[in-house]
Structure formats: C-alpha cells, structure tokens
Amino acid sequence: MRKILIDGCEFVLKKGDITLEEVDAIVNAANSSLMGGGGVDGAIHRAGGGAILEECKKIINSIGSLDTGKAVITTGGNLKAKYVIHTVGPVWRGGSKNEEKLLSDAYYNSLKIGEQYGIQSVAFPSISTGVYGYPKEKASKTAHKTVVEYIRNENKNYKTICFIVFSDGDYQIYENLFS
C-alpha cells in the first residue's frame, strides 16, 4: 500500500478487492445499462446485493441508459461503503474517438456527484482497462491527472481518494504515478 498527501487529501494506492473497501463510496466501472456485468461491475453487484440493482433499474427507467463519462449514485447495499457511484468509461478505439476526454469525464463526474452527497472518502477501480481495452498506462495517467486536478481546484469534501487495483502489474503502473 502506498499513501501520499496532496492538498490536504490523502491518496491511497492499494492492491485488493474494491468491494471490501471501508470508504463512503466505491466507484463502479459500469456498463450503460447499469444491470451488472463482468469484472468490477459484476463483483460490486454480487457483493452489494439486490438493493443496488433495484436502484439501477429505477435510474435506467428514468434516463434510458447512462452515457459514457456520466455518473449516477445508488446505495451500497450490503457493501461496507454507503454508496456506489456508477460511471461508464469509454471503450478504447485507438485513441481517436475522444476516449481520453470521456475517461476524464468519468472520474470527474464521479467525484462531482460524490461531493453532492457529502462523500469524504471514495475508492476508484481502474476504469475502462478491462474488457473495454483502454491501455492501462494511458488510463492511469488520465485518472491520476483528473483526480489530482479536481482535488487541487474544486475539492470541498474529500479527505481520502483510493485507487484499488487488481494485479501486481496494475499496482506498478499506478505506483509510478505516486512517485
């Protein structure tokens, strides 16, 4: 585990299972239907239970689908986290389809909605780097830059930002950013 302080906010890097994090909110790398899926999304829905899915269904009935880069919030259900912030990252298409901006929006909008709910601690997975195929080094730089800029320029609530990664390789990529 690695920790650094940036403008009064503790940044934590950890290899582990995001569903076990004791934070106010965890971020779900969701698909646009919010109905669960593979990877982080499926793990969060399984661990959090039916309450998350029920709230997701209500949201989708209201908006149709969640656009890439946008974020919504639900209960944490059975998770230790009180909330789940669902965001849709971009599918990697070679970098010429506005992927970097859309990925940045996913992180930014997750932080923004969390702040509206008074969230002080949040845990992020590596959004879009699984089946969506976003190159991990590029994604980590965008994530780090977006979150640090948010904390420096807009933060009113956050005390702790966690990046929870799944593999040793992912940890090494993020650790390079923490240096």
Q: Short summary of the structure?
A:
With 179 residues, the protein is α/β, with parallel strands linked by helices. It has helices at residues 39-48, 50-63, 99-116, 136-153, 168-178; strands spanning 2-6, 9-15, 25-29, 71-75, 83-87, 121-124, 160-165.
What are the SSEs and their pairings?
Elements: E1 2-6, E2 9-15, E3 25-29, H1 39-48, H2 50-63, E4 71-75, E5 83-87, H3 99-116, E6 121-124, H4 136-153, E7 160-165, H5 168-178
Parallel strand pairs: 2-7, 3-5, 3-6, 6-7
Antiparallel strand pairs: 1-2, 4-5
Helix pairs in contact: 3-4, 4-5
Walk me through what this model shows:
- The chain is α/β, with parallel strands linked by helices and 179 residues long.
- The protein has a single domain, classed as Leucine Aminopeptidase, subunit E, domain 1 (3-Layer(aba) Sandwich), CATH 3.40.220.
- The chain has helices at 39-48, 50-63, 99-116, 136-153, 168-178, and strands at residues 2-6, 9-15, 25-29, 71-75, 83-87, 121-124, 160-165.
- It has a seven-stranded mixed β-sheet, with helices on both faces.
- Strand 1 (2-6) and strand 2 form a beta hairpin.
- Helix 3 (99-116) crosses helix 4 and helix 4 crosses helix 5 (168-178).
- The protein starts with a strand and ends with a helix.
